[in-house]
Amino acid sequence: MSLLPFRRKPTPGIPALGGILSGYSIEVMPRTAAKVEDFRALLPAGTRVYIAHIDGTPIEDMVATARRIAGEGFEVMPHFPARIIRDRAMLGDWIARYQGEADVRQALLLGGGIATPQGDFDNSMQLMESGLFDKAGFRRLHVAGHPEGNRDIDADGGDEMVMQALRWKQDFAARSDAEMAIATQFAFDAGPVLLWAARLRAEGIALPIHLGIAGPAKLQTLIRFAIACGVGPSLKVLQKRALDVTKLMLPYEPTEILSDLVAASAAGNGLIEQIHLFPLGGIKTAAQFAIDHGGAATLPVHAKA
């Protein structure tokens, strides 16, 4: 029995945030996805669902999750973390499994969350250079972005190596048929994000930005994730909130940063193409927040970068 496309109306009295959540994407892991009985009861039809590949997760679990979510009518984008992929043969095997068992044609390519490569690959550029994604007909490739820096790449706290890598990826997009975008780490303050986006444009990097936003969650949970993931200046937003006893026990919602991004867009600084939700407080909670604030299923359409 098929379900009708999801069309829940926004909750009356809650602002739609200017439609910034229209076409949002969301991230899951196999173990969190397993707790969801049917994604069609939570997400708008056509939502892009990233599947995070954490070191130690068997590829069989990743592919089974992709097959299940794709079968429910969603665009599936699995992570390919370079440093946990042993060699070209393993990369080809993963691509073939996703394609053959779940009809996947898109991927998020990233270095991965471990310090030492387990094989031949160290970064996402090497995955792209392999040519295997193009050969398999993967039409969309996303790459990671770090608006507040990444000390795993630039240990001095700067951004020289990160910018060099993004310029390479911009050139790759120009010489290939891949539709590309930058999917970023989550942030809590619009200021650093907008400065980073403007810096990219000044550097000639025009890849669309899909900005990571943490969904509603307990403040303590967010601070823990933010520290573990190396979130930079915008962590102060959470720390300041933690000092206010009237807010300490209230769940965090990303309304302030989203409102600031809407205002920036209205002022002509619309550099963010799409919002990507990290459901740190639970998939159901994040999905409900998005729908309540104007989230819809329509994915943005743009020319090849």
TrEMBL record:
GO terms for molecular function: oxidoreductase activity. This is Methylenetetrahydrofolate reductase. InterPro entries: FAD-linked_oxidoreductase-like. It comes from Pseudooceanicola algae. Keywords: Oxidoreductase. It comes from the Bacteria.
